[in-house]
């Protein structure tokens, strides 16, 4: 039989108490860590959802951009670029050289502009008119041709189409003859749209051609395009 002294019993009691306190502290630490981990995960879920809502991407992996209707219209820079391309293609054409030779021989050709047709669904009529007016002004200032500019050109064109409703070329030639012009400069604007948001795109195609009034033949044709948004 082993006899333990009061001192020994005290040491044993203190040791057992210390072990119990250590065990409880460890449990509290594990519980606190688990709670912190749960809270962190709970915070991450709403943040991930928020990021998914504010940073959507398109099918190409880039940031999605909702294109507004205004961004699909022609602006001043577009008009200047289209006009410059049409003018440069005319200046480098065989027709411009032919007209220069005729002018040198005293047979300067006379031109008249007919409105360009708007074959798009977009409200770009004013932009098309701006292109035509600038082209007309530029050709007025060139030496190889003269330009007739009646104030009622649109009315004259409408009357010609009433008289020749079955043929655009016949109507334009009649319009040119009535104005005593040798050539009619006209054209059209069409569009090819990709309407699905958010990557909507519209490509505008501007075509200008020159009609010989006597032969009703198209003696010059040029085309240029611009894509919106650019």
From TrEMBL:
Residues 48-58 have a biased composition (Polar residues). Residues 32-64 are annotated as: Disordered. Keywords: Signal. Residues 1-25 form the signal peptide. Gene3D superfamilies: ABC-type transport auxiliary lipoprotein component. This is Penicillin-binding protein activator LpoB. It comes from Persicimonas caeni.
